[in-house]
Design brief:
Elements (H helix, E strand, L loop, with lengths): L2 E2 L11 E4 L1 H12 L9 E8 L5 E9 L1 E4 L2 E4 L1 H14 L4 E8 L7 H9 L6 E5 L10 E10 L2 H15 L6 H10 L11 E3 L6 E12 L3 H11 L9 H28 L6 H13 L5 H41 L1
Parallel strand pairs: 1-11, 2-4, 2-11, 7-8
Antiparallel strand pairs: 3-4, 3-7, 5-6, 6-10, 8-9, 9-11
């Protein structure tokens, strides 16, 4: 069998994977936006490796690909351009593996995993079951190891993989001519490099590892809100502002009561709390009621103006898209 559930041990091996919610959202978004002819999507995982051997996946982006006749064509140039852009934005996040949609691994995953072996050390393969086949195993993580029989087979497999990833520049013209004969379009399939199937004596042995969803405070609040089925009861902007002001009033009342009890000797004072309250009061500008209402009203007007300009821009883009579509039909 291609898949085996064995414990992962040894120096340099990935012990587990921690996936942030934004990665799940990116995978689902790429699956929804896929072409009608595609049954699944793949992409690159970004993050870092922790000292304990676990991989923390913080971001992801989709990579165009095509699968046919047991071969996989991956847009390598697109992947590397996106990786360079991500590195400029956040140098701490590097390529740690790749993802695909589906229930577990499939035979063609060995070819893609071999490619990512040249992009990073010990890549992690994360699968997301978008069909909800098993509710208990919607997201799973895997690591792969190349298995070959004999030293000659190992060298042959490595040479084939290296040739698939880094083709000589001198063969670019021949490749372009061949793609034109096959009817490929410029900047689409012509820029995709095929990953051929390795020799029969070489394969990839996948092992499943532990996977947990890692949330920080802000992400946990967003996920809990999205997981609530009563989405129709979401508060409007005015209701949210009213709730925030009400909570602020309750906090002020509680603070005032605490100060009164300390002054009356009913509650022992705390110097750290006193310094914190003094800093908080010092940061509040001294404004009269009329001045505060004017500043607050001006801020509201600025927000409304930005919302209006955003809606106008959105309508202009929609109108331009409609006109472009109409011109194409003519």
């Amino acid at each position: 069998d291609m898949v085996a559930f064995l414990p992962v041990t040894g120096a340099g091996q990935v012990a587990s994977a921690k996936v942030h919610p934004v990665v799940v959202f990116n995978i689902c978004d790429s699956f929804v936006r896929r072409a009608e002819t595609q049954t699944r999507v793949i992409g690159t995982l970004l993050g870092h490796v922790n000292p304990d051997g676990s991989v923390e996946v913080k971001n992801a982006y989709a990579v165009p690909h095509n699968e046919q006749n047991g071969q996989v064509f991956v847009d390598v140039e697109f992947h590397r351009a996106m990786a360079d852009l991500a590195k400029k934005v956040n140098p701490a996040e590097v390529v740690v593996g790749w993802y695909s949609t589906g229930n577990g691994v499939v035979p063609t995953d060995a070819l893609i995993h071999e490619f990512y072996n040249h992009e990073c050390k010990n890549p992690v393969h994360v699968t997301l079951d978008t069909q909800f086949t098993d509710g208990q195993k919607l997201m799973r993580a895997w690591v792969g190891r190349s298995v070959a029989i004999g030293a000659a087979a190992i060298e042959g497999a490595k040479a084939a993989a290296a040739a698939a990833v880094a083709a000589p520049e001198g063969a670019k013209d021949d490749t372009d001519a061949k793609e034109k004969q096959e009817g490929s379009r410029p900047n689409s399939e012509a820029s995709k490099r095929g990953l051929p199937v390795a020799a029969a004596s070489a394969a990839t042995h996948f092992q499943e590892i532990g996977l947990v969803n890692n949330f920080d405070a802000a992400e946990r609040i967003g996920v809990s809100l999205l997981s609530n089925q009563n989405t129709e009861n979401l508060a409007t902007h005015s209701q949210g502002l009213e709730s925030t002001i009400r909570k602020l009033g309750e906090m002020l009342d509680s603070t005032a009561l605490y100060v009164q009890n300390v002054v009356a000797g009913k509650t022992p004072g705390n110097a750290e709390v006193g310094r914190f309250l003094a800093d908080a009061l010092a940061s509040v500008p001294r404004l009269t009621r009329e001045q505060f209402e004017k500043v607050f009203g001006d801020a509201i007007q600025d927000v409304l103006l930005v919302m209006y300009l955003a809606n106008v821009t959105k309508m202009q883009l929609m109108l331009a898209e409609k006109l472009q579509t109409a011109s194409l039909l003519v």
